[in-house]
């Protein structure tokens, strides 16, 4: 039993190391996207500066930073299969003598670590430029919220990762559409109450809505875990539902792709 756990852990670590090696290989492109993300978030922050409202600046920056982390997590997982298809390694990965859970857990662990590294870099730029103070922040609450939201977005990312196995040419684009829809209804840069009535029900089924609301409460208002118990329970419910659904969808998608001969396609 212990040997099996150690072997599984080594396999997970190998995928994490491999993915970071790919980041280093394409460091130029990664730098471009990090700079683009930083500039995009700073641009949003200057809207608050233009309005002369410091609270609005903090509101926008927290939303931008958190969405940057969640979107990186979602995008990294959604692109995991598409990236392997482009590299021409997807068949070798799936034929390797490792469990599919090791591949998925490794990809998820890399996505979380990479998202945190990017977010810390962006946060440093935001604090340097806007001089934002988070002296009243409840760090414990923020960490728990981040963990809960990461788990729920892992489930969404696994579902999105299936799409390239159904359509190698258009699957990645469809994942971007799904990400954009989550951005629209989750209140990243505005309160969901301003959405049209027919859109507001969609915000209630987005884990990002509850993540943003709770994170702003923790970082801006210093709320404790007890005050946000209901929101945290919802986030963990999302995780409990979405992760098994994502894993089942991935397994089903892989089976379909093997039978249809779509795994061999690359480029």
Structure notes:
By secondary structure, the chain is mainly α. The chain has one domain. Helices cover 79% and strands 0% of the residues. The chain has helices at residues 2-25, 27-50, 54-87, 90-95, 100-130, 139-161, 163-166, 171-185, 200-203, 207-219, 229-260. The longest helix has 34 residues, at 54-87. 37% of the residues are buried. The mean pLDDT is 82.
Write the layout of secondary structure elements.
Elements (H helix, E strand, L loop, with lengths): L1 H24 L1 H24 L3 H34 L2 H6 L4 H31 L8 H23 L1 H4 L4 H15 L14 H4 L3 H13 L9 H32 L7
Helix pairs in contact: 1-5, 2-3, 2-5, 3-5, 3-6, 3-8, 3-10, 6-10, 6-11, 10-11
List keywords for this structure.
267 residues, mainly alpha, 11 helices, 0% strand
Mean pLDDT: 82
Structural class: mainly alpha
Strand content: under 5%
* Helix content percent band: over 70%
H/E order of the elements? HHHHHHHHHHH
Quick one: overall form?
globular
Concise account of the structure shown:
The protein is built from eleven helices and no strands. By secondary structure, it is mainly alpha-helical.
